[in-house]
Amino acid sequence: MSNGPGIPRLGFDYIFPNPRFAIKEGLLAYGGDLNPDRILAAYRKGIFPWYNEGDPILWWSPDPRLLLYPDRFKISRSLRKKLRQKRFSVKLDGNFTSVMRHCSKVPRHGQTGSWILPEVIESYSALHQRGFAHSVEVYDEEGNLVGGLYGISIGLAFFGESMFSLVPDASKIALAYMVELAKRWSFDFIDCQIPSEHLMRLGAQKVPRERFLDELEVTQLSLGIHGNWKVYDSLLEQMEW
């Protein structure tokens, strides 16, 4: 890792600069690779990769951080009605890579292309195989995948990466189920990373980076829910709205 001025470049080891001293926008380092062990080391320090095709890998820890505490999730009346109708089925970890591919195609306001590049899908799919990365999937009555989200779970925290909807509110349904799981498993928070008005309307809040990093250290004192979450599909069927 460079000791010179500017943003440091990562070396062969998995050591990152201290995110507590990162610039407010959060750019912390560049370079390295997407080895699953490096990615896990990053998340454990409150850091995540985010970059465009053709750019070097950029590593971020923004200030403030957007966190969703499970008991502060806001369900609108219209969403609650859809949840009660149970027109969609929700499953865990049954189609992880497909969820990532759908998320990579979601148009983003003010952005061209996607940071969910083929090498990102490959690395996070490897983390899924190792029991760290998970998907919440929404299927219609014909069994078609119509929405979902994915992220990484470490300790009693879930680091949400991206969501998609092919029909109205499918991603919100996935998030509602993820929040309910987080409550049942006593998760401390769902990390939403970068502030967005959409997620703030659902109850997420801006948290100073220092507070987030303190809470992150505490949540990793617990083992969490490791392994394939598909074994918990029955929990979803029991949920009442």
General description of the model:
It is a single chain. This protein has about 240 residues and is an alpha+beta fold. The protein folds into 2 domains: about 10-65, 2-Layer Sandwich (Alpha-Beta Plaits), CATH 3.30.70.3550; about 65-235, 3-Layer(aba) Sandwich (Aminopeptidase), CATH 3.40.630.70. Helices cover about 30% and strands about 20% of the residues. The chain has 8 helices and 11 strands. It has helices spanning about 35-45, 75-85, 95-105, 120-130, 170-185, 195-200, 210-220, 235; strands at about 10, 25-30, 50, 60, 65-70, 90, 135-140, 145-155, 155-165, 190-195, 205. A 7-stranded mixed beta sheet has the order 6-7-8-9-10-5-11, sandwiched between helices. It has a 4-stranded mixed beta sheet with strand order 1-2-4-3. The radius of gyration is 18 Å and the shape is globular. Mean pLDDT is about 95; it is low at about 1-5.
What is the arithmetic mean of pLDDT?
95
Shape: globular
What is the helix/strand order? EEHEEEHEHHEEEHEHEHH
In terms of DSSP E residues, the strand content is 15-25%
- Decide which structural class fits the backbone: alpha+beta
